[in-house]
Every structure is written in structure tokens, then in C-alpha cells.
């Protein structure tokens, strides 16, 4: 039985949902790691938490770009032109 074909318009919302969930997880883990380092090593400074948020956000953005580029949305739209 052939696989059910999914339109590229139907792939975008599920990819964005996964990106949002991944962003929440990565930023949250950055806050926790930065907070732990701030309490243990850096005498309650704010910059480790900020650094953790920035690293988590950057990792999430990179994962989202890869996820959205691998869903064939761009390639299918280019084939139509």
C-alpha cells in the first residue's frame, strides 16, 4: 500500500510546533544550567544565566532552520515555478 502523501502546507504547522517545543526545552535547560553555575561557581552573578539563555536560543534556532529546510517545503515550491 503506498504511503499517504502529505501536502507541504500540512507539514509547516507540525514543524513549527516541534520547533516551539524544542525552543522551550533548550532555553529552559540553559536557564537551569546557568543558574546552577551561577550559584555554585560564580557567586550569584547574572551573566551565566544570560549566557545559558543565549546558547539555548541559538541551538533551538539552528535546529528549527534545519527542521524547516528538511521538510521539502522549499524544494517543492521551487519545482512548481
Automatic annotation (TrEMBL):
Keywords: Membrane, Mitochondrion, Mitochondrion inner membrane, Transmembrane, Transmembrane helix. The keyword Membrane applies. InterPro entries: Mic10 (IPR007512). It is found in: Mitochondrion inner membrane. It is a single-pass membrane protein. It comes from the Eukaryota. Belongs to the MICOS complex subunit Mic10 family. Component of the mitochondrial contact site and cristae organizing system (MICOS) complex. Component of the MICOS complex, a large protein complex of the mitochondrial inner membrane that plays crucial roles in the maintenance of crista junctions, inner membrane architecture, and formation of contact sites to the outer membrane. This is MICOS complex subunit MIC10.
Amino acid at each position: 500500500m503506498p504511503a499517504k502523501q502529505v501536502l507541504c502546507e500540512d507539514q509547516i504547522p507540525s514543524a513549527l510546533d516541534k520547533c516551539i517545543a524544542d525552543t522551550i526545552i533548550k532555553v529552559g535547560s540553559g536557564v537551569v544550567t546557568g543558574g546552577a553555575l551561577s550559584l555554585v561557581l560564580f557567586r550569584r552573578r547574572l551573566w551565566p544565566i544570560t549566557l545559558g539563555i543565549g546558547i539555548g536560543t541559538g541551538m533551538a534556532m539552528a535546529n528549527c532552520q534545519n527542521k524547516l529546510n528538511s521538510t521539502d517545503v522549499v524544494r517543492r515550491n521551487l519545482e512548481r515555478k
